[in-house]
Every structure is written in C-alpha cells, then in structure tokens.
Write a structure and sequence with these properties.
The chain is mainly alpha-helical. The protein contains five helices and three strands. A hairpin with a 4-residue loop joins strand 1 and strand 2 (119-124). It is rod-shaped, with a radius of gyration of 29 Å. 12% of the residues are buried. The model has no long low-confidence stretch (mean pLDDT 88).
Length: 138
C-alpha cells in the first residue's frame, strides 16, 4: 500500500485470505457503514429540534391549563365537562382562551371526553411531527 511504500516497510502475509473471510470482512464493513448512515440520518433529520421540543412543551402547558379549568368546573358544578364552550366561559376570557388553543394545538386532533368523575384531553402539538399530548383527570 502507499503507506507501506512511504514508510519503507514490508508487509508479510502468512497465508492468503479465504473467500469466506474476505466476504465476512466486507459484510461487517458494509453493515457498520449502514449503521453509521442510519445514526447520522436520525441525528440530522428525525430527532426533535429545540424548536419542536418547545412547541411540545407549550402544548403540555396549555393542557395543564385546561386541566385546572376542569378542576374549577368540577368544584363549581360537581362534574367534569366535555364542552369547550363551558371551559372557555370558565376561563374568564373566551377570546384569549380560543387564541391560546389555536396557538398551542393543531386544529385537527383535539379530543375531550368527560364523565362525572374523570376527564381526558388529547391534542396534537404544532411541531413538525404533530406530537400527540394528553392528560387525564382523576
């Protein structure tokens, strides 16, 4: 090889490699290169960016806000509600409530369910993957 020629060294081979060992070396090398390519692709294309993580965090904050309003509704009326209009009225400022929902969540995918003692809310964050965030009550 070029390195051996420049260094004036001589490489001595005890025996010639078999076809199996050459194939195994090639397969392991290609497998390692494929693994590194997949990891590189994950790091640069699939992993959540700081902006996406911030949007997911924002969606969780707004779900907790809705959860607090549900708790207030339960104390006042004795049951949880699945009606967003009631929750917006409980918030004190329905217009701000609507703006917060549109800011934090995708328009599609918001689900709210409730009975007398439990509630469930699920929404999609506004990150690139439209990550689903959810919260349940007692």
């Amino acid at each position: 090889t070029l390195h051996d020629y420049i260094a004036s060294t001589v490489v001595v081979k005890v025996r010639q490699r078999t076809g199996f060992s050459q194939g195994l070396t090639l397969a392991l090398s290609l497998g390692l290169m494929a693994l590194l390519a997949v990891l590189w692709g994950y790091m640069f294309f699939y992993r959540f960016s700081p902006q996406s993580l911030g949007q997911i965090k924002e969606a969780n904050i707004h779900l907790r806000y809705l959860s607090r309003i549900q708790q207030v509704h339960k104390k006042r009326y004795g049951f949880y509600t699945d009606n967003l209009y009631r929750l917006s009225a409980m918030s004190g400022d329905p217009d701000l409530f609507k703006k917060r929902l549109l800011y934090a969540f995708e328009k599609e995918g918001f689900v709210i369910g409730a009975d007398e003692n439990h509630y469930y809310m699920s929404a999609r964050a506004k990150d690139w993957g439209k990550t689903q965030v959810k919260i349940t009550g007692p």
